[in-house]
Amino acid sequence: MAKTGFKSVDDYIASQPEAVQVILERVRSAIRKAVPQAEEMISYQIPTYKMHGGVVLYFAGWKQHYSLYPATVHVVAAFKKDLARYQVNKGTIRFPLSQPVPVQLIGRIAKFRAKEAAGRERAKGRKDISE
Fold this sequence. Notes:
Layout: H1 9-14, H2 18-34, E1 39-43, E2 46-51, E3 54-61, E4 65-69, H3 73-78, H4 80-83, E5 87-89, E6 92-96, H5 103-130
Helix pairs in contact: 2-5
């Protein structure tokens, strides 16, 4: 049974096999560098980054891959060419553990998602004012 009840992203990463820990630290670093103002936390028992009142990204490690969530319709469309070599479905981007971490791509996706979150917050604010 997998460990649950993580108190921090450090706890989550430490629970993974040693080789996977290195990979997940690179993913974490790419996200933090791209969106340093995002709040890092655990949600749904996986690392989560939030800002502007919403989720920017989640990531998780698995046996053969690690995943980024959510792969919104807009993310998939904006990064279609870059994501062609990865498995993308049901809001998830899967990156094989056997390949180098695409740090720049992950950073660009994080920045894109941060803009999506900011846009949702602005739209919500306009809605509140008009009510």
